[in-house]
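PT: before anyone asks, these are the final sequences, not the draft ones from last week. 771 residues across everything. Please model them as a single complex and drop the result in this thread when it's through.
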Amino acid sequence: MIPITHFLAVSACIFCIGLYAVISKRNAIMILVGIELMINAAILNLVAFGRYDKVHYGGQVFALFAIVLAAAAVAVGLSIILMVYRKYKTINPDQITDLRD
Amino acid sequence: MMELLYISPIHASLAVLLFPLLAFLYQAVRGKRGQSGIVVLIAIVLSTISSVCFVFFQVWQKVPMESSVSWFTVGEHTFSAGILLNNLTVLMQSLVCIIALPVHLYSKVYMKGDPGIHRYWMYLSLFCFAMLALSVANNLLLMYVFWELVGFASYLLIGFWFTKDAAVQANKKAFIINRIGDLGFLIGIALVYTHLGTLDLSELFGKQSPLFEQLTILHKERWMTYAGLAFFVGAMAKSAQFPLHVWLPDAMEGPTSVSSLIHAATMVAAGVFLLATVFPLFNESILLVIAIVGTITALTASYFALAQQDIKKVLAFSTVSQLGFMVVAVGIGAWNAAMFHLVTHAFFKCLLFLCAGAIIHEMAHAIPASSKTDPQDMRNMGGLRRFMPYTFTLMVIASLALAGFPLTSGFLSKDSIIIATFEWAMAHGGAYLVIPIVLVLVSYLTAFYIGRMIFKVFFGKPKLWTDEKVTVFHEAPKGMLIPMAFLGLCSLFFAFSFHPISHKNAALMQGLLLHTSFQPIDSLHLFIPILLICGSAIGWWLGYRWYVQGKYPLKENNLLVRHARQQGYINEFYQGIIVQSTLYLSRGLYWFDYYIVDGFTQGAASLTRATGRVAAWVDRYLVDGFVNAVAQASYYSGHLLRWVQNGRVQSYMGFAFTMVLFGILYLVLR
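LR: through. Structure below.
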């Protein structure tokens, strides 16, 4: 049986890769992908901890719930990116600085 | 009819002053166009007429008159300016007019063709105005104003030929030495005003004034001595008394007619006139000082006159010497004798100068312009008797008057002084007898030096022209001879007294009668004149033997002669002691100023500068550094925070995660 520590370590690695992608990528799509990775790391944690709740399978339920939420969030994110592209003719977040004002 | 002709003496006296003043203004306005001097001549003629007819005869031996207007007010005291007419002032005013008139007439011919003649007339009028006003001023302050003006006008006249360096030096010298005297006069005025509260002459010295009684008591006070001394210093400078006489010989650089006027009745007489005016101020001790200074002056000047080669310098020293006589007369208390001698001396000294002017005029014409020969040097003259007989006669009359021969006016006045001095000395006894004895000696010397001048100029052979038939010399023109003849007549006894040998009968002496402190001694009135006449006659005889017959060949380089010719080295003494020491002192002060005072200042300045530099460094690097460091710190922290707010979503996110990381670290490490 694989101990939970390995799950958590893999999850932390995925989270960090996702975080790195969110912070450093020059493409909004890739940022969305980074966000997906971070959500996936969280889901992996949920599933790993779900092993200790064999009565309700609360972890698995939360994982499903998070997957739906992530799909919805990506849909919203993609639509935002489309609108941003329409306005700025670019999806490089470095050049989109209007959030400042 | 007589009432119609009557003019108030006050108004007439004012007119006497105004004519020369108006002439001065006219000449000043006309400038170079007014060369003829007619207006000036008319002015002086009118002045003379009104002075003699309407002032002198109206006031002389009658009640003194005074008229004044208020001048200015200081505090509660009002100063008045006005005219005071008494025997003394009207005598002085008329004398100035009577002397100035022939000098003006003479100048008309003498100064003809001078390029600056318009200035000459202008200055001469100014001078006459100042002197006439000085003589009738009614208070000491007003007198001082005109006293200064006389000094200034004489400065202009002495330096009339301003292109000559010697003339410029001479007028500066005259002016500066007169300034010393003026300072004395001013101090005297201040002392009198401080202690007596008035400067009005009639209030001070009038016989009715209560102050007059008071003065005799005040004589014991010390300030009175100082005041007398101060006034005497004023008179010393103007009347060229011994240590301050040096300006007068140099003043010969002016035109001869000017010398004549200055020496005769006006400027140098002003000192004696002042002494006579303020006479009641003098107490015993100051009178003795005056007598001693007068004696020294008379002796030294006659000694210097013995060896002068310049004809005008002989006469200049003669004037100084005669002024010494007058000052002695004031010093012994017989100021009436001083005034008498002043009046007689005015005529014959004026005549002597005018004659000398005539001779110099001829000499200057005869000497070719290219040669450097000095027309005033007596060594170049000689034998002029044949060419200028009238001038010769007149000059001899004037010389005899100066030497004090009987039948001349000089005999009367000089004897009056010497006899009075003897009487005074007899009354005091002892060492006081030195003064009259010296005066007798001076009288002999006078006879000798004036005889020497006559013999050198008029006798013997012409020195420059050995040719006997030389015709370059002519008698002086009539325009010069007539004024000279008039003065010649006035140099004789009958102009002053009908008794040829007794000065007691002279109208002037009776007019200025005063009671002296000493008793008259009758035997002296016979003895002294005989003594003087014999001595003077011997003096002339010696001079004749010496200079005409060449019997006692004079050694030129005798120590005494050299000493006398150099005027006793007094000028050199002044140059060495006063001028040089002043220069050294100035140099010392300059050094002190430059190195000590300036050095201190500059040291302080550089110290301040160094301190400033340190302060600047501290300010720039420490104070500013701190302030800038604070500023920079807030700048960078602000910059850091601003960088976060760059509007990029990724950096917000990074920042958020960083913060979370720090939060976790904090929680972990706590």
